[in-house]
Every structure is written in structure tokens, then in C-alpha cells.
Amino acid sequence: MTHTLPVTPPFGRVLCAMVTPFTESGALDLDGARRLAERLVDGGCDGLVLNGTTGESPTTSDEEKSALIRAVREAVGERPSILAGVGTADTRHTIELTHQAEKAGADGVLVVTPYYSRPPQDAVEAHFREVADASGLPVALYDIPGRTGTRIEPETMIRLAAHPGIVAVKDCSYDFLGTQKVLARTGLACYAGCDEHNLALYAVGAAGCVSTVANVIPGHIRAVFDAFDAGETAHAARLQRQATPLIEAMMAAGLPGAVTAKALLTALGLPAGPVRAPLRPADRETLDALLAAYREAVPQP
């Protein structure tokens, strides 16, 4: 028996929350971004999220964000979808970034809840509606209250799902019940935003994942979904468990995913470069733990 999705994934199944490569001097490394994007797509990702949390969007300029989208689109063509992070704490600025992403070649935008000001739910809803009304690009909501301080409550999300331009949600709520309510009552495509939830959410009807860990093991993340779709659910579970030490090392060790992903990519000789301040690079002990977890997930010949 194969896995049948309740909705057609608008941006693909396996999306990588791609790091933004920098040169050693801290400048945007567009050549590195092109090479990394090609590797991820060749490795099994059918979508790339650019300028997101893992892409260090708080420390890249509007011009750098647009340049990154254009460079990646040039490198990978139409093979993957490109979902551009445009969320800010300012509705007007978010709309400006949405227009820029559309001109640069993005297929959709990922819009995080406005942060720091902690708007009430009616203001959160109005923010997303204004962004969705501002362009022809489909919108993916980004629910990550641990970073923003504000949840997109399930009832708010259910109301927003009626907007024709709002098609998906990246779920980092850690609320399985709330997510299942949204899945049951809307046509929103739900993407697991926390790698430890990839298979669990997919099993109850999610569209796929937006994975930070896919920066280093794109083929393995893809294989979990492929196995589940083929009805090989026990094998899918084994693959998910096999990746768990790496997921924990990258995502639950007290450091942002941008730091751990870039540390591993650099150690593997892949484009990444340093993180921008205030983030700091992983220390040697952390890197050794990351490499050990990587070798467990990807047994060496």
C-alpha cells in the first residue's frame, strides 16, 4: 500500500533549508551557493528554501537576498522549486521583500510570524493576508513560536487557509494535535520544519519537510519519504532512526542549525564558509561530535 497525499505538494516533498555560503572574509559567495544548490538538487531535494533561518536571513541585506535567489535559479533552472524567506517584523518590509523575491525568480515565499512585537492573533492574521494580497506568489506560513514569541494559533491558520494565495505552512510548533487539526480541516500543505518530526508528520498527511539536515544528507532525507511512499514503512522508520543522532547533534545541541550545518559542510569540503556575527563558529569538540554523528548516519565504505 502506498502513501497518498491529501493535497499536491506545492513546492515538492523534500525541501532543504539551504545555508547561505560566505567567503572567508564574510562576503556573499554566489559561486559556492550555485555549487551547493546543484549538489542538493542532484542529491534528491525537489525544493530549496533560501534566505530562511538556516540561511542567516537576519544578517543578509535585501540586495544579497535577491542576488542569492537569482544565482541559485540560474544554477538549477526549473528543476527544484525555490521558496524565498521574506518574513520580517515589519509588514511593509515583508511586502517589499516579497516583490523582490518574485522579480528574482522565486516560486513562492515563506513568511514567518512577525517577531519581537508579539502581535495578537487578529494582527497576525491581517499581516499574512496583506502579504498574500501583495503579489502573485503563493505563500507558505512559517509557524515557529520558539523564535518569534508568537504562535499562529490553529484557528487562525484555519481561517487563513481560505485565502487562495496561502497554500502551505512550515510547522515548527511542536504541537502535533494542533497540526493535525489544521490538516483535518484545511487543504494547506504542511511541511515539517523540525527534522525529528519529518516522518511522523508525513505519516498523518503532511506534504513533506523543510530540512536543515538535508544540507549534508539530502539523499538520506529523501529516502525516508521514498520508502514510506512505497509502503515500506518499517524501512522508513529505520532510516529516520538512523539519522536521529545527526538530527540531535545538528538541531538540539544548543547551537543554531546554521552553525552546525556550516561546520559540517566545511569539514566535508563543501561550500559554506563562516557564519556572520552574532553567531560564532562551532568549536572543535562540537565539530568532532557532528562528524561522528554524520558517520553514523552515512556509514563510510
TrEMBL record:
Positions of the record's site feature: Part of a proton relay during catalysis: T53, Y116
One Pfam family per UniProt: DHDPS
GO molecular function, one term: 4-hydroxy-tetrahydrodipicolinate synthase activity
Pathway(s) per entry: Amino-acid biosynthesis; L-lysine biosynthesis via DAP pathway; (S)-tetrahydrodipicolinate from L-aspartate: step 3/4
UniProt-listed NCBIfam families: dapA
Protein name per its UniProtKB record: 4-hydroxy-tetrahydrodipicolinate synthase
The reaction(s) this protein catalyses: L-aspartate 4-semialdehyde + pyruvate = (2S,4S)-4-hydroxy-2,3,4,5-tetrahydrodipicolinate + H2O + H(+)
Organism of provenance: Streptomyces glaucescens
Active-site residues, record numbering mapped to chain: Y142 (proton donor/acceptor), K170 (schiff-base intermediate with substrate)
Assembly and binders: Homotetramer; dimer of dimers.
GO cellular component: cytosol
Family of the protein in this entry: Belongs to the DapA family.
Organism domain of life: Bacteria
EC top class, as a word: lyase
E.C. numbers: 4.3.3.7
Lineage of the organism: Bacteria, Bacillati, Actinomycetota, Actinomycetes, Kitasatosporales
Subcellular location: Cytoplasm
